[in-house]
Structures are given as C-alpha cells and as structure tokens.
C-alpha cells in the first residue's frame, strides 16, 4: 500500500512539473513574449495644465510601470493646448503633434483622464476624441488595445462614473477594450479633488493605481 501511494505521489508530482513546464512559455506568449517595449500613453483632458487630472493620470502611469520592464509610459497633458473638434476640413493645431504618438506601433494602451464637468466629460476631452478619427480609417490603429479612464470630480459622486461610461462608449468606436476589474476600480479610476488637491483621497488614488496596473497587464497579454 505504501509503495502504491508513493507511486501515485510520484506520478502526480511529475504531472505537475510537466504542466508547469508547458504553462510558462504559454504565459510568456500571452504576455507579449516578444520582449518588445510597450508604451502606455495617458492623455489628460483638463484645460488646467498640471492640475488634478494630470496628477491622477500620473499615479496610474507610475503604477503601470511597475508591472513589467517592457512597459514605458508617457503623459500628454492637453492643458493650455489649442485642440478644436472634428471638422470636414483638415486643420492644423496642437493635435497635429499628438497624432503620431497614437500611431506608434509600440503603443500598447491608452488611459484617458477627464474632469467631470456638469456630470460629463470636458469639452477638451470631446474634442480630443473627435480628432482621433484618423485612427479609424483606413486602419483601426487602436483596435484590441486596452483603454483605461480616469475621472476626477469635486464630489465623491460628482459624475465620475458617467465620465468613464462616456469615454468608454466613444472609444468602442475605435475597437478598444475597456479595462477594469481590480476592486474598487471596477469601471476605472474615480478620484475626488478637494480644493484642487487629490493627495488626501487615498481611495481614489488606489483606483488610479489599480487601473494603471490593469491596463499594463492587458497590454502585455493583448500585444501581437
């Protein structure tokens, strides 16, 4: 009986070792096993440069960098820039310099941040999304890339969830994959700004960090 149990244990251990040996390459392949750098771009769509939306986005990007050495991050702060909405006639403004960054083959994911204005996205956020139209035709450049959303409001329930939904709905038109899932950041990051300061909102900053981690994880797994 003892020999039989020992034999079973041996076979079980051997099977586990074989499974582990085969699982490791598969996980590496799922996680962008090519070893190429992947860039996560954060776009702060507040007209106020360097303020709470940009800071909340930076917290998400800093967390994304910790996931894997291949993850690179960049914050694009739209505050103070001149970006008009979509027009049938091509126009030259500050968006012209931003577009190539979103067309970079190394782009692994995007995190868009917006303040909640009257329980909705900022006009600058709307203009930015509209100007991303060239990323849809002739090729869906952003398709199958993770999208994270950071929303900042002056109240705990100041419309942050509505901002997240609005950005996600718009970016579905680009084929992006909404990121969420790590509690409490089920939809995205919801941050509270009190007198232009988010440093005291540890709960909100936690959602931003967890969102950044989730976007990076998805970028690694979805990378071609």
Task: Characterise the protein shown here.
The chain is of the alpha/beta class. The protein has two domains: 1-30; 36-222, Flavodoxin domain (Rossmann fold, 3-Layer(aba) Sandwich). It has helices at 2-30, 52-65, 95-102, 123-131, 160-171, 202-222, and strands at 38-44, 71-77, 107-115, 146-153, 177-178, 189-192. Strands 1, 2, 3, 4, 5 and 6 form a six-stranded parallel beta sheet that branches. Helix 2 (52-65) packs across helix 6 (202-222). The radius of gyration is 21 Å and the shape is globular. The N and C termini lie far apart (51 Å).
What's the SSE blueprint?
Elements: H1 2-30, E1 38-44, H2 52-65, E2 71-77, H3 95-102, E3 107-115, H4 123-131, E4 146-153, H5 160-171, E5 177-178, E6 189-192, H6 202-222
Parallel strand pairs: 1-2, 1-3, 3-4, 4-5, 4-6
Helix pairs in contact: 2-6
Average pLDDT, all residues: 88
Oligomer: single chain
**Strand-residue fraction?**
15-25%
CATH topology of the largest domain: Rossmann fold
Distance from N terminus to C terminus (CA atoms, Å) equals 51 Å
Number of domains: 2
Look at the helices and sheets and give the structural class.
Answer: alpha/beta
Query: What is the percent of helical residues?
Result: 40-55%
Q: H/E element string?
A: HEHEHEHEHEEH
Task: Please report the first level of CATH classification, the CATH class of the largest domain.
Answer: Alpha Beta
- CATH-wise, what's the superfamily of the largest domain? Flavodoxin domain
CATH architecture of the largest domain: 3-Layer(aba) Sandwich
- Which ranges are low-confidence, i.e. pLDDT below 50, for 5 or more consecutive residues? 1-32
Count all strands and give the number. Answer: 6
Instruction: Tell me the number of helical segments per DSSP (H or I, 4 or more residues long).
Output: 6
């Amino acid at each position: 009986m003892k020999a039989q149990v020992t034999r079973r244990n041996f076979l079980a251990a051997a099977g586990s070792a074989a499974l582990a040996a085969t699982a490791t390459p598969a996980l590496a392949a799922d996680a962008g096993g090519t070893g190429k750098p992947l860039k996560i771009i954060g776009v702060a769509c507040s007209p106020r440069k360097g303020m709470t939306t940009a800071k909340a986005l930076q917290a998400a990007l800093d967390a994304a960098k910790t996931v894997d050495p291949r993850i690179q991050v960049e914050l694009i702060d739209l505050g103070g820039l001149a970006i008009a909405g979509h027009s049938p006639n091509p126009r030259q403004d500050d968006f012209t310099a931003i577009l190539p960054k979103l067309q970079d083959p190394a782009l692994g994911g995007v995190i868009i941040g917006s303040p909640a204005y009257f329980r909705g996205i900022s006009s600058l956020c709307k203009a930015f999304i509209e100007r991303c139209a060239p990323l849809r035709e002739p090729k869906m450049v952003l398709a199958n890339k993770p999208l994270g959303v950071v929303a900042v409001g002056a109240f705990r329930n100041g419309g942050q969830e509505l901002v997240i939904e609005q950005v996600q709905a718009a970016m579905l038109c680009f084929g992006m994959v909404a990121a969420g899932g790590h509690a409490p950041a089920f939809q995205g990051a919801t941050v509270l700004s009190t007198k232009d300061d988010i440093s005291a909102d540890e709960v909100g900053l936690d959602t931003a960090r967890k969102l950044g981690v989730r976007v990076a994880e998805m970028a690694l797994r979805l990378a071609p």
